[in-house]
Amino acid sequence: MSELKVRSVGVIGLGKMGRPIARHLVAAGYNVLGFDPDPDAVSLAKDLGVTIGATCADVAGASDLILVSVGFDEQVEEVVFAADGILAGAGKTAILAIASTVSPSYMMALAGRVKQRGLEVIDIPLARGERAAEEGNLLVLAGGPKDVLARCRPALEPFSDGIFRLGETGAGQVAKAVNNMLLWTCLCANVEGMDFAEAFGVDREVLREALQQSSGANWALETRADERPALWAEKDMMIMLAEADGARVAMPVAGTVKEAIKAFKIARNLPMPKRQG
C-alpha cells in the first residue's frame, strides 16, 4: 500500500477551504478532480484547472486520494455513503481523507464502516482558517495508520506547512476539538477584556497592539477573530461538550465558553450556522 503514489486527488466540497486546497494541488502538478452542488463553486474551480465530476462517485473513481471538505457530519455521511457517493465509485487502493471538522466518535464509527468496504481512511481536520488555506500554510491534524498517512503526506504538503499525526483514525478530530475550544476561549476572553478596557477609556486598538507583545498574546487577538462571524463556534463547542459527556470528562470552561460565544454573536447580531439535514 505505502509504495503506491498519489497522483490524482479528488476534492469533495469546493468552497472557501476546498477551492484553495484544489488550487494548490493543481499548482503542485496533481491531477485534481472536484465535486460541489453549487454551480458558482464549480465554475470557480474549473477556472483553476480542476476537472469537475458529475457525482462524488465519478470523482472518487478517478482519484487515488479523496479529500472531503464539507460542513457537518450529515453532509459527510451523504457524500460518502449515498448511492452516487464516494464509496460507490472509489477503487480498492484509494484513500479517503476527512478534512471536515466532525465529532471524534462519528469519525471513528465512519472509519469502521468504510474499512468494512475495503477502503483506507484517515482524518485530517485543518487549522488556521481561510487565510491559511489561500496562502497554503494550513495545519493538518491527522489521525490514521502511519503507512497510509505517509502515502498521503506528499499530497498534503502543497496546502500545508505542518502535518502532525496524533494517533489512529479519529485522533485528528480530537486534536481539532481541543484547538477550537482554545480558539473560542481566547476570543471570548479577548472581547471581555477589550470591553472592560474601553469602559475605562482605554483605546482598543492601542491595547490590541500592546497585548500582542505581552503574555496575553494569542492567535484570535492577532487575527482579529472578534471581527469575523465565528460561524462554526457553536458547532465546535457542542462537539467538544458532547464528546466530553460520553467520556465522563468534566469541562466547566468549555460549557461557559459555549454560552459566552452565543452571547458574543447575539450582541453583534451575527449569523448562526445553518445546519442541513
Overview of the structural elements:
The structure is a single chain. The chain has a six-stranded parallel sheet with strand order 3-2-1-4-5-6, sandwiched between helices. It is 51% helix and 14% strand. The chain has 13 helices and nine strands. Strand 2 (31-35), helix 2 and strand 3 (51-52) form a beta-alpha-beta unit. It has 277 residues and is α/β, with parallel strands linked by helices. Helix 9 (171-199) packs across helix 12 and helix 9 packs across helix 13 (252-267). It is globular and about 65 Å long. It folds into two domains: 8-168, NAD(P)-binding Rossmann-like Domain (Rossmann fold, 3-Layer(aba) Sandwich); 174-267, N-(1-d-carboxylethyl)-l-norvaline Dehydrogenase, domain 2 (Orthogonal Bundle), CATH 1.10.1040.10.
